[in-house]
Every structure is written in C-alpha cells, then in structure tokens.
Specification:
2 helices; four-stranded antiparallel beta sheet
Length: 80
C-alpha cells in the first residue's frame, strides 16, 4: 500500500486555497490542540481528518478509520 500525502503535501496540493485552509486548520487546532490530524483519502482526492476513530458501515467487511471532523477544499467552497 502506498502511503498518502503528508499534511504539508495536502496543503501544497490545494494551491491558491492553501492559505484559507491553513487558517481554518489553525482554528480547529486551537479549539482541540491534542486532536490528531492527517489526510484521509476520499475518492480521487483527500481531505484533512481530525480525530480519527474506528468506523465500519454495515456494507463493509472491514473496519476503517474515519474523522470526527474533516476539512476539504471543494470546487467553490471549503467544507468543515
């Protein structure tokens, strides 16, 4: 399995939106300084996940890890 991007690579991949994403990330980290964060693959991209926890939908055979909070750059907006 190929490792995913690092947090810094995730910000860099956002291009001109990186500054906006970093500001929102700073707010999340200020509110929850001890929360873990890492890029989480979604479709062909990734979102920044905070507070990963075990998650297993009924249709899945294996348990995965899913974030309690996620930050993503959408085409026209940011999602938190």
């Amino acid at each position: 399995m190929t490792p995913g991007p690092t947090v810094e690579q995730w910000f860099a991949a956002a291009g001109s939106r990186a500054d906006e994403l970093r500001r929102v990330d700073a707010l999340v980290m200020a509110a929850a300084p001890d929360i873990d964060r890492q890029p989480v693959p979604v479709g062909s991209g990734a979102m920044l996940g905070y507070g990963l926890m075990p998650y297993r939908p009924r249709s899945a055979k294996e348990t995965t890890r899913w974030p309690l909070i996620a930050l993503a750059a959408q085409k026209r907006h940011l999602s938190l």
